Structures are given as C-alpha cells and as structure tokens.
Amino acid sequence: MVSLGPENVRIAANARDKADAIRQAGGILVEGGYIQPGYVESMMRRETVTATYLGNGIAIPHGLPQDRELILHTGLSVLQLPYGVEWNPGEIVHLVVGIAARSDEHIGVLQKLTDVLDDEATVMRLARTGDIDEIVAALDPARSREASAPTPPATVVPFLGGGMRAEVEVTGGTGLHARPASIFVTLAKQFNSDIRVSHQGKTANGKSMVSMLRLGVESGGVISISADGPDAEKALHTLIDAVESGLGEEDEAAHAAPKAAPDVQPAGQAIPHATPDDEPGLIRGVAAAPGIAIAPLHQLRKQVEEDIERHAINSDAERADFDHAIDRAGAELDELHRTVERRAGEMEARIFAAHREFLDDPDLIDAVRHRIGLGETAAYAWRETIEERAEDLAGLSDPLLAGRANDLRDVGARVLRLLIRRNEQESNLPDHEIILVAEDLTPSDTASLDPDLVKGILTALGGPNSHTAILARSLDIPAVVGAGHEVLDLATGVTAVLDGSRGTVLPDPDAARLETARSAQHGAGQRRAEVLQAAYRPAITIDGHRVEVAANIGAVPEAGRAVQAGGEAVGLLRTEFLFQDRTDPPSEEEQYEAYRAMAEALGGLPLIVRTLDAGGDKPLPYIAMAHEDNPFLGQRGIRLSFTMPDLFRSQLRAILRAASHGEIKIMFPMITSVAEFRRGRALVEEIRREVDGPEIDVGIMVEVPSSAVMADLLAREVDFFSIGTNDLTQYTLAMDRGHPALAREADGLHPAVLRMVDQTVRAAHGEGKWVGVCGNLAADPVAAPILIGLDVDELSVGVPNIPALKAQIRSMAYEDAKDLARRALACDGAAEVRALTSEAA
C-alpha cells in the first residue's frame, strides 16, 4: 500500500491563497516523480467540481479521474500551514494533503485523516509541530492501528466531500468468502455511490467480487466501508446491516465438512472400517464427503492448454468476441445454477450465483478491456488477468478464502473455452463405475458428474470446505481430497477402496481387504436402506393424524427418485425445464413423452403438473416480451400463457394425452381471480374432448394475496389448492425474496403469511377440497408443525427432504401442532413465531 514518507512533508509553510496551497502540495508530488506537472492543474480544476475541504482544518486536494494518466506513481504530500489559509469562505486549513492515486491505495490515508478529524487538539498539534515524524506517524496509512485498540461500533461518520464511512465486524462464520462477498457486491451495485472496503491496509472496490475476495477478510475481521455519492448514507446503512446480519451465512453450518469418523451404527453393533488404519499402501487424505466407494480408478488428465496468440489483429473484433463470451458464459452459469438447485438445493446452487458475480465484476472486466485496447487478444488478456487475480487469492492466509482461487479459475476456464472456441469434452469419462482421480476438480466439473457412474472422488489438492467438497456431499458421492500428488501416479483401471468418512484410499486391495471393504459398504448400505425403508411408512402423528408428503421435481429422472425417497405423490412438477435454455419451444410430442415417463415412473401415485410458469425471473428467449419495469408484477404465469394460445394449447394437449398413463392433475400458476381460473378450466375441458382424455382434477397455485382473500369463492370452482409460499410471502410482504438485503425479512413464518394459509385452508375444507403447500416453507422443520397445525393436507418438498420430514411428522402430536399454530397466528412478526417454536421444541 502507499506510504507517506517524511520527504513528502513540508512544515512551517505559508500560502497566499487556496490556489497557492494546492500548487505547493502538487509541487511536492512533481518533485518526487509521482505526477506530471499537468496533474497540478487537474487538482485546481477539481475544486470547481467537488469540495475537498474535509473539515477541522484539513483539506485533501486531488485531480479529476479522467486525468489519471498524468499520474506516474501513487503518492501523497502534506503541506503544513501553521497560520492557515482560507480554503472556502469560513474554512481555514492548516494541513493540506495532496493525493495522486492511480487506483485506491490512497484510501488508507483518508481513513487516518478521519481518525484525527474529530480531535481538534490533535489537528492543531500537527498544524504547529516542528517534528515531521510526528505528522508521518499520525497520517501514514502504512502504520496500522494499535492491535489493542477496541473495535469501534458501526457508527457512520462524514467522509470526504459528502461521503460517509463506518467500521463493522464481519460476523459470518467463514469471513468474506465467495457467497457472502457476492451478496455484499450485489447490494453495493444497487447504489450510485462509489463503495470502497478496506481491511488491514488493503482497499477493494465494493462492487467488485474479485477485489473483495483479495482483502482476505476472515471471520471476526473488521472492515471499513466508505460510500461517496448521492446515496452514500443509505448505501452505508444497508451494507452495515447486511454485514452485521451475517451476509446469508446462517446456514453454512449445515454444509460443513464431516468429521473423519465411521458411520453411525446402532449401539452395541460393531461395523468394520473399509480398511484397517495400519493397512500397507493406505493413502491418507482429508475426509470431504462420507461413504465407501469400491471401483476402478480413473485419472482425469487436464487438457493441455493451447498456445494463445497475444497480439490482436483487430481490437474491435476482439472486444466484441469478449463481450459475446461473457454473455454466453453467464447463460451457462444461470442454467448450471438452476440444475444444481434442482439436484442439490438452494445453498449449493449459490456457488454458481457467486460464479456469475465474477462475470459482472467491473474491475475484472475493465482490466481485460484495457488490455484488449492495448492490442492483446481477448483470450490472452482474459487468461492473464484471471491468473493474476487467482494467484493473489491463492496467496491469502485463510485456506477457505485461498480456495476461492479455484472458483475464479473455473469461471476463467469457462470463458476461455468460449473465446478459443474449444468444445467441452463432457463425455470423456467412461460409461462404467469409477473412482475419479484428479489434481483438483472445479465446482463446474463436480456439478456435472453422474453419481450413478462416479462412485467416489479422489483429489491431490483441495480442502473439506471447498465448493467441490460441498457439491460432492450434496450429490452423495464419497470424496477424499488433499491426498497429495502421489495419487496422480495411480494407474487407471486399478480397483481401489475409498472411505470418504475417514479420508483414506487403498489402491489394489487383496481379496481379504476387498471383502472387508465390501462388508463395510454393505453394512452402510443396510443402514441407509433402513432409513429409506422407514421413509415408505406413512407420515402419521403420534395421535393419529395423517399428512401426505409429496415431492417437488423439475426433471424426468426425479420422478423415480421421489418414489425411492418415500414420496407419496409429486405435489409440484415445474414444467419450465422443458422450455428453458433452448431457442424454440418444445413440441407437443416431446412434452407428452416427458409427462408420460414421469407418470409411469410414479406407478399410479398422483402427479400434479403446473403449467408453464414463465416470465418474471424466468424469461424465455423465443418469446418476445416487452420490457417491464417490474416483471414480477407483469406478464407471467397464467397471464403469459393466455397471451400465447398455441403454446398453451400444445402443453395442455400433451398433459391430457399423458393422463391416460397415470393419475395426473393440472395446476395453474399465478391465478388472481375466479374469471382467470374459469377461462383456464374451460380450455382444459375443450382440449380434453379433442384428445379424448380422461376426466382430470384442475387446481391452482395460491401465491398472490388476491387468491388467498378470494379462497372462499375459488374453492367452489377448483379441485384443490397448492400454496406457493415463496411468492405468497414476497407479494404479501412486498419484499423481493431474492433481494440480498431483504431475504431475511421475507420470512414465510410472518403471521400475515400464516393467516393467508389459514384462510385458504378453512375456505377449501368448507367446500370439501384439499390444500397442499409446495413452497420452501414446507421443507422448513420449524414451519412444518405450524402448517400441520393449520390443517394443511399435503406438504410437498425437494426429494432429499422427504425422509426427514416424514420422520419429523411421525414424532409430533397433532394436538400440539394445532396449539402452536393458534399461538403463531397471534404473533406480531416472524421472529416471534420462530421464538415460539423454539420454546415448543
């Protein structure tokens, strides 16, 4: 970082006026070789644009941003004026701090200045001292604060010309790693003000993901946030609140690495390890994902990097290629985010939301475009810029933060592949069971693995809390990481035993060891089978109340998995998977085959098919939609389907044809009135006659307040209700559930939302109709008793949540749930409801 040396301090100076003082401060920088003389004139012009009087006798003249090319090196100067000079009417300055900054290295001295700003005695002492070292000691940003100083509260103070600054402690359990940093950056980008974050002498652009990660902020670290611009105070308060609330890290504990321990077994029953601890040839690594894998090893060799031409022929063409590659990579990551969310869950999918943030990083993108402007090819400029920043991250002391270098390189490889037009080799793995061996795996590599073929993962590098390890656990693939480069010498095809619970691998076991491992694997499989077998039991409370537990799915294979997990129905089939990430809509035949396959996989269990819920946050590229200032309140759901009659009819025909192969029901999204439902149901009946389909139940999603309020009238018309608590919460509370700052507040346990649920259930039961809940609230263990107490008939959750939810229901009493629900309806906020459930636990 920049340092203020004694050679750049002038004491006992005099100045005729402000202009003379600025020229003297600038002259020190010219003499020191920091700036060209023209930058002094820029410092003069800055005075007509921005106030540089900091307050309490201190001014900070600096040049205009567009004149930064006149800066040779970042530097600082201090001009001491014991008798002062009038800066502006009524403003007397004694310390003039000249700043020439190529980037953000000067922020540290500004922080030092604000430290002394409110201490008039210190300012006057510095204004009159004859000791240059005293000034340097007080203002040099390279001199950190005393370690013993207590952490100040997050108090907003004036900073720069109209800007603000505050310090706040990072409370998240893992510091500012990728996911919390991405939330911070997303928030910062919503404001027009310039946002800077400083930590231990380093300063970052608060709107730059990579810049934020390079700070290396660990849990408990104190950061200084400054905001300068028209909405500085609002920005600062928003960011402080987000940091103090943990930046979404409250769920991280659930994703922590497993301890290196054997699987849990019934008391008194000894389960053998896969291999003895003293086994010759045993390789020890780090336990990353539990389970035992026995399969041939397969070495995943890195593709040899092609030579990349450095010098461009046409910079404009390179710039266009770069922009196109960024857009394509963004679309790929959006799809990967949706896929991982379906397969593994929302928390795991956030990994790729953080990756997406890299592509929107202004510092990163600007650096590449700058290099392209200097004559480099887009591919070369991108690769070099990514590697420079990845090396910075890899050098951080905190292993978790250093591990984010792998994420950045993952994003870098994705864009580079597009720039050099190299096809991905996704099918280079064999079509039989393997234990995959690699130096390391990127999150993208891991997310694309097929758990039916990749039975285990072994890497030379990596840690138990890496994104790769998190994804391996979510995919239920046993993994050992950080086992050392010797594993890269293991021969492909050799059978090995991998124990992800203990972090060990035994290559080429003899017959006895292999039998021991298979016995241990069988024992673990039996225990898992017992858990799954219990999942097939109905969810009946201890006092005899039955609740149906169904699955939310969004792909054909998930129907079979829902049955295997103990699902009693599919309460929500999101049909968007057939329509997204393509350039034209699916044909009727393609849809029919998908719906039929799922109905047959369910073996007669109900399948509720929600018609296309596009629009809002789910646009379709082949549907021309006018720009909407608020797409969540525009053409989406059933409204959009009505505007596309051919597409809507095609989907209904496919569903009604498939209904001959199983118990299929139709559900309309975003119904807001009786008239909308009647229009949709009439179309279903018309098409049913056309295809000679069976009679079919038709219901609606209750996800807007109007349908909940009108539930008594709608209940006379519909066959069932399914409450989508995600949208119902955001529309009831007027809070975007995807907004980083509001995500905590948009809580489905808010009594207003619960009252909507209660009103809907009572209206439905009054007409003999059933009600399900298919939003995230159904999978919340805290919410389940309340929903059951409100007499919800069905809870529909992600496939992995089914066994645990059924077990929870079997352990509770219906009468207790009803009492809890009654008290929850009387609460005044979600926090009080959650506190109520804690007391009841």
From TrEMBL:
Keywords assigned by UniProt, alphabetized: Cytoplasm, Kinase, Magnesium, Metal-binding, Phosphoprotein, Phosphotransferase system, Sugar transport, Transferase, Transport
Q: Which domain of life is it from?
A: Bacteria
Domain spans labelled HPr: 163-250
Cofactor list: Mg(2+)
Disordered: annotated span:
248-279
Q: Which reaction does it catalyse?
A: L-histidyl-[protein] + phosphoenolpyruvate = N(pros)-phospho-L-histidyl-[protein] + pyruvate
| An annotated GO BP | phosphoenolpyruvate-dependent sugar phosphotransferase system
InterPro entries for this protein: HPr-like, HPr-like_sf, PEP-util_enz_mobile_dom, PEP-utilizing_PTS_enzyme, PEP_util_AS, PEP_util_C, PEP_util_CS, Phosphohistidine_dom_sf
The EC number on file is: 2.7.3.9
Q: Which family does it belong to?
A: Belongs to the PEP-utilizing enzyme family.
Family annotation (NCBIfam families): PTS_HPr_family, PTS_I_fam
Function of the molecule = The phosphoenolpyruvate-dependent sugar phosphotransferase system (sugar PTS), a major carbohydrate active transport system, catalyzes the phosphorylation of incoming sugar substrates concomitantly with their translocation across the cell membrane. The enzyme II FruAB PTS system is involved in fructose transport.
Q: What is this protein called?
A: Multiphosphoryl transfer protein
Lineage of the organism: Bacteria, Pseudomonadati, Pseudomonadota, Alphaproteobacteria, Rhodospirillales
